[in-house]
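Design job #97: recover the sequence.
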């Protein structure tokens, strides 16, 4: 368990409500579940747009994060502020996975589509269910070793 306490995440002064992040992740799990049941690529294609907005724009909300904001607000929970940068990095991973899922499905590469989609679902479930950021894990063990200057 010590390896998880030593994770390195991207940092920034911007903050985001953890409750909204977790509800957004649950929405991703649900939307991908509908994709797995129907095979309709409109669902991961919608997530491509949503992840793109969260990963690369300065918009305050994507469609899913706006709905999550309304959902969390309706319960009157107090915000739990966390750094936004790790969630932006995670959104970029989500964008990559949903793009691969959508393109693979459109090309008839069902196995690739389901593997990348299942990976996304696992990552999103870890976020919403146990508050584990898979993006931080990827950053710590894949990205950081590739970009650090001391090796």
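Job complete. Output follows.
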């Amino acid at each position: 368990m010590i390896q998880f306490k030593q994770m390195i995440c991207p940092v920034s002064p911007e903050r985001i409500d953890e409750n909204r992040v977790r509800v957004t992740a649950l929405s991703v799990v649900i939307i991908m579940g509908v994709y797995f049941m129907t095979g309709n690529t409109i669902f991961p294609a919608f997530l491509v747009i949503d992840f793109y907005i969260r990963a690369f724009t300065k918009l305050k909300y994507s469609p899913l994060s706006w709905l999550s904001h309304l959902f969390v607000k309706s319960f009157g929970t107090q915000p739990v502020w966390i750094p936004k940068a790790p969630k932006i990095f995670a959104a970029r991973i989500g964008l990559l996975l949903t793009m691969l899922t959508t393109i693979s499905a459109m090309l008839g590469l069902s196995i690739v589509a389901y593997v990348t989609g299942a990976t996304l679902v696992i990552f999103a479930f870890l976020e919403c269910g146990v508050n584990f950021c898979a993006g931080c894990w990827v950053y710590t063990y894949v990205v950081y070793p590739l970009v650090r200057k001391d090796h």
